Every structure is written in C-alpha cells, then in structure tokens.
C-alpha cells in the first residue's frame, strides 16, 4: 500500500521499480497491453496483407496466418505503380498540404501579431470577427464554397485545394494568444533602437515563438493531410487528386485487397516516419489545441 | 495592453513619438492582417452567408427555373424527408454512444499513461499513431477487417473467442451492426487525439493537491474522485464538445464504406447534404441542410460554454 502511494505522489518517475512490480502497476500494464493489441492488430494486418498475393489475403483472414506474411513479396507494390501514377498522387498530397502549411504559417502569424501587438482602429472588430468564425465547421460552407469555385472556374486544380484553407481562424487565435503572452520588454527595446514592426517580428518574435509555429504547423497538417470531402467534391481526375481520394477510387477500381493494402502502406509510411521522429512535437501540438481553446 | 498606452500617453514627450509610430503602426497592422482577413472573408464568411441565402431559395445548378425565394419551404421539405430524419437520428445515436465512450476511454488511457512507469511513451505513441492515418485509409483497412464470412478476420476472431458459437456476419451490410461498426473504426482512429488532451489536463493538476490528500490519508480511489475528476471537469467538457461536433460531421467513412446503407442505417446529415448537391445538383437543399447542421453545432457549443461557465461561477 505504502509503495503504491509513493508512486502516485512522487512527480519523478524515478520511484524505484524493483523486480516485483506492485499489483496496480501490473494491472496498468495489462490493460494498456490489451488496448495496444487492439491498436496494433489492424496495422500489422494491413502491412502483412500488402505483402501477400491477393488470393491469400481473404482466405488467410480465418486463421492466425492473417498476421504471417506467407508467400511474401513486393509484387503488390509494383502493381500499384503499374495501375496508378502513385508518385503523382503522393506529390499532390504533399504539395497541397505543404503549401497550406507554409502559406498558413506566414499569413496567420502576421495576423496574430497585428492583433496582439499593434495598435490600430478596427482591431477589436477584426478580433471578434475571427473568434466568431472559429465556430463555423468546414462542412457548413462546403456547398456554397463549391458553388463559388465552380463559378470562377477553379475546379480540379491545385489552388482550389490550397487557397481557401490558408487563412485559418483557429491558427490566428493560437498565434494571437501566444504573442499576447510574451513579455513586451524585448520588443520595446528593439522598437526604441529604431526597428519597425516587420523587423521586430522577424528578428525578435519569430525566433522566440518557435513552439507556436510548430503547434500550428502540426495541427494544420493533421487537419489537411487526411481531408476527403473537399477534394472529393472538386477533383474530377487523377491529375490533382490527393491520396485519400485516390485510395478510395483505387479501391473501387481494382478490388484486389493485396494491392489496396500496398497502396495504404505506401500512403502512410513516409508520414509515419516523420511522426515517429517528431512525435514529441505532435503530442505538444495536440495538447496545445486543447488548452488553447479552453480559455 | 490598452491601459499601458494610456499611461504612456500622459507624458507629453512620449505623446509625439507615440502618435507618429501609431500612424505607421496602423498601416503596417492592416497590411499584416489583410491577407488572413481577406481569406477568411472570402472563403468562410462569404460562403456562410451564401449558404443562408440559398437555403431560402429554390436554386439548382443548371436549372432552367428562375431563382426564387421560397421562405422556409426547403426546411419544411428536408424535415419531412425520411432520409434526412433518419440522418438526424443516426448522427444523434452516433454522438450518444461515441461521446461517453470515447471520453471514458481517452480519460482511462490518459490516467494509465500518466503513471510514472517505464514504457509509457511507447504506449502513448502507439495510441496516437492512427490520428495521422487519413480516415479514408482507416475505413478501407477496417472494411477488410469486417469482411463477411468465416474468413473475415473479425468474424474468425469472434468465432475463436466464443468457441465456435459465433455465426459469421456481414457487419457493414447488417442494418443493426453497420452504425456500431462505423463507431468502432472511428473510435480507433480518434481516441488518441482526445487522450493527449486529457493527458495535458491531468498534467496541469498541481502535484501538491495529491500530496495534501495523501497526508490526509486519501487513497488512490478517493484521490481520483475528489481531486482528479473535479479538476478535469473543463477538459472533459471540452473533449465531449469536440467529440460531439465530430459525431455530427461524420462523412468520410460513410461515403467510402456504406453510402448511407443498408436501408439508410448509416446515413448522416453531411452525407445527405453532399448527395443533394452531387446527385441532384440541388444547391438550395444542400444549403438548407448545411444551415441545420450549423445550428446543431452551434447548440452543442453554446451548451458546452454554458456548462463550463456555471462551473467557474460555482468555484
């Protein structure tokens, strides 16, 4: 009992873990492992199926063979490249998401800074306007936006998937609340030395505000990378299609589970590597999205 | 911030520099804010107003009929449409099950992972991983998992666990199981996100609270009930809000896996909206549905704000 308490109280994870783990820790590990199984099984199943001849994928589902790459080969992967221009689709997704991230960081950070640090008439109104827009989910405006872009002939292109998503109310809000919480002294020193707002922002604020840039970048990525509804509405062919729409189309078209899973593995692999390298940043970014909006 | 400038403005010498820099500040500020402001105006505010406008018209893409105001007719029509009624029911059912379930699992996982034991980062990474998987991919992988017949992996698993009593089912084409099947795959993909927010909430509770409780002799369970849960109230409300809004946004999985079927068992508000525009070119009808969807989201948000405000007042 004593030992259990000491685990909970101490803030340091150093609390001696000896060979005999307390029962509560064992229960903790056990339940986490069960949950981990539920999480790992679909991923392993996907990867293993991608390596198998298509005929085996469905028949092996009935036994433990589902998790063993019998007759494993990379043929499905070659198949994917033969059937669709996978490189193009991957490029589309990366280009669209990347452009939204880069342009979004610049545009939204500038707005956040102007709102947090500069004195101007209309500041309060614009701030209220932006906070109010945060509540509108994309699905509300998908139909009229589709109508708008159809009228100006933007459908089936890169810019129709990029430009509407650059300015983002929540990103501005995150920048705004970060900037407003920064100590003013540094900036004031720079301003007294004659630096204008642009220089101050670039040389004083930006280097200190890396965490919020990382948060916004990661949240933008998570929001945009998997987006399905909008590209489904505006793209008509393979040329400008991003990965999720291309994968669903691929599934409809080939009906071969081995190939479909190979497509899935290739689609997620590069991002998975990035995620595993920077997973601490991802976690911090998501955590900030919660605490950011709570105030 | 505003008070600060007022204090400075009182000293006459500073007044001049202040006003000069303020004039240039004014211009710079507008230049800085303009791109974002224009973007939001054109791509969020404008379509939002257009949605409300079209909801009261008979507008159809390519229709020969002239644009006409029909007052609340579109709303009357969609609310008497059985498919849309079913969509509202399905979204509500989805929210009713998924919100408590996902909050509980997210909180449970966060509580476990927050313990100072070895290997917790590994578990955290694993549970968070599906968040970076596009929903389209998750849906398709789970379609294979839900494969009908004895060789479907989930059917085979359930058959093994029940020692052969389980009769293989076609989950995604079964009127009673299709929606729960969608719930499970959505949970699998989304719970990691909520878990991280819960974890951040747990870690912001001052450690001293627990120390004081331990001195008073409170055991683990009592600490959970009397410290952790009350301290987590706002975080839990926030997560519940986000999850309910997600439940009403349900679309990708439906479009890819069931197309609203079988027999409307999985149709949703957004699915009906997209169908109205895609299949019938009926922008007015789709806009009316979008407006209903927005009102639902607004109601949920206001409810959440109200609950958390009351919470603050009590304290």
Explain this structure.
The complex is a heterodimer of chains A (295) and B (315). Chain A folds into two domains: 55 residues, no CATH class; 210 residues, MetI-like (MetI-like fold), CATH 1.10.3720.10. In chain A, 74% of the residues lie in helices and 0% in strands. In chain A, α2 crosses α15 and α5 crosses α12. Chain B has two domains: 46 residues, no CATH class; 242 residues, MetI-like fold (Orthogonal Bundle), CATH 1.10.3720. Chain B contains 13 helices and no strands. The N terminus of chain B is likely disordered. Chains A and B meet through α1, α2, α3, α5 and α6 of A and α2, α4, α5, α6 and α7 of B.
Key terms:
heterodimer; A: 295 residues; mainly alpha; MetI-like fold; 0% strand; disordered N terminus; B: 315 residues; 13 helices; 75% helix
Determine Rg of chain B (CA atoms, Å): 26 Å
| Name of the CATH first level of the largest domain in chain B | Mainly Alpha
Mean pLDDT of chain A: 84
Determine the fraction of residues in helical runs of chain B and give it as a percent range.
Answer: over 70%
What would the CATH topology of the largest domain in chain A be? MetI-like fold
Helical amount among residues of chain A, as a percent range? over 70%
Number of helices of chain A: 16
In CATH, the homologous superfamily of the largest domain in chain A goes by the name MetI-like
Oligomeric assembly: heterodimer
Give the radius of gyration of chain A.
Answer: 25 Å
Question: What topology emerges from the helices and strands here?
Answer:
The complex is a heterodimer of chains A (295) and B (315).
Chain A: H1 2-9, H2 23-51, H3 54-60, H4 75-83, H5 86-117, H6 123-133, H7 138-151, H8 159-162, H9 169-180, H10 185-192, H11 197-208, H12 210-225, H13 229-234, H14 243-254, H15 257-277, H16 279-294
Chain B: H1 2-10, H2 12-55, H3 73-79, H4 82-113, H5 120-128, H6 135-145, H7 153-161, H8 178-203, H9 207-215, H10 220-248, H11 252-257, H12 269-280, H13 283-314
């Amino acid at each position: 009992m004593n030992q259990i308490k000491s685990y909970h109280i101490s803030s340091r994870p150093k609390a001696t873990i000896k060979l005999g783990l307390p029962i509560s820790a064992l229960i903790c590990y056990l339940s986490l492992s069960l949950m981990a199984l539920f999480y790992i099984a679909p991923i392993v199943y996907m990867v293993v199926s991608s390596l198998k001849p298509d005929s085996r994928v469905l028949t092996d589902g009935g036994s433990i063979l589902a998790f063993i790459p019998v007759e494993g080969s990379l043929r499905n992967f070659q198949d994917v490249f033969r059937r669709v221009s996978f490189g193009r689709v991957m490029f589309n997704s990366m280009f669209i998401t990347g452009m939204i991230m880069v342009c979004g960081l610049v545009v939204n950070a500038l707005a956040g800074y102007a709102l947090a640090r500069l004195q101007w008439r209309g500041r309060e109104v614009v701030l209220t306007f932006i906070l109010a827009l945060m509540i509108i989910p994309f699905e509300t405006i998908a139909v009229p936006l589709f109508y708008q872009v159809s009228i100006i002939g933007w459908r089936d292109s890169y810019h129709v998937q990029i430009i509407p998503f650059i300015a983002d109310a929540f990103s501005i809000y995150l920048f705004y609340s970060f900037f407003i919480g920064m100590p003013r002294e540094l900036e004031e020193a720079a301003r007294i030395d004659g630096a204008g707002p642009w220089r101050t922002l670039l040389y004083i604020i930006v280097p200190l505000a890396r965490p919020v840039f990382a948060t916004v970048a990661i949240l933008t990525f998570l929001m945009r990378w998997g987006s399905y509804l909008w590209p489904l509405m505006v793209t008509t062919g393979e040329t400008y299609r991003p990965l999720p729409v291309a994968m669903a189309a691929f599934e409809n078209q080939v009906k071969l589970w081995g190939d479909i899973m190979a497509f899935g593995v290739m689609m997620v692999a590069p991002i998975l590597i990035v995620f595993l390298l920077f997973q601490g940043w991802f976690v911090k970014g998501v955590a900030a999205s919660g605490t950011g909006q709570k105030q | 911030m505003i008070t600060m400038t007022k204090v400075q403005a009182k000293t006459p010498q500073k007044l001049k520099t202040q006003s000069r820099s303020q004039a240039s500040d004014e211009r710079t500020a507008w230049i800085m804010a303009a791109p974002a402001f224009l973007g939001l105006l054109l791509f969020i505010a404008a379509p939002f107003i257009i949605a409300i406008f079209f909801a009261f018209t008979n507008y159809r893409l390519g229709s020969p009929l002239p644009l006409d105001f029909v007052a609340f007719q579109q709303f009357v029509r969609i609310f008497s449409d059985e498919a849309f009624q079913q969509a509202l029911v399905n979204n509500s059912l989805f929210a009713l099950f998924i919100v408590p379930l996902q909050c509980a699992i997210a909180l449970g996982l966060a509580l476990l992972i927050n313990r100072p034991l070895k290997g917790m980062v590994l578990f955290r990474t694993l549970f968070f991983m599906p968040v970076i998987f596009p929903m389209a991919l998750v849906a398709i992988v789970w379609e294979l998992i839900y494969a009908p017949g004895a060789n479907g992996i989930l059917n085979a698993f359930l058959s093994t666990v029940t020692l052969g009593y389980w009769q293989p089912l076609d989950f995604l084409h079964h009127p009673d199981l299709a929606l729960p099947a969608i719930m499970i795959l959505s949970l699998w993909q989304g719970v990691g996100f909520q878990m991280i927010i819960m974890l951040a909430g747990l870690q912001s509770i001052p450690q001293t609270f627990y120390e004081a409780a331990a001195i008073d002799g409170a055991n683990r369970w009592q600490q959970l009930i009397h410290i952790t849960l009350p301290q987590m109230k706002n975080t839990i409300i926030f997560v519940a809000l986000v999850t309910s809004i997600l439940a009403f946004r349900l679309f990708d999985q439906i479009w890819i896996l069931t197309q609203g079927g079988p027999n409307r068992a999985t149709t949703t508000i957004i699915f009906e909206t997209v169908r109205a525009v895609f299949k019938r070119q009926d922008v007015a009808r789709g806009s009316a549905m979008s407006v209903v969807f927005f009102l639902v989201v607004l109601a949920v948000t206001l409810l959440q704000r109200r609950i958390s405000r009351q919470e603050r007042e009590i304290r």
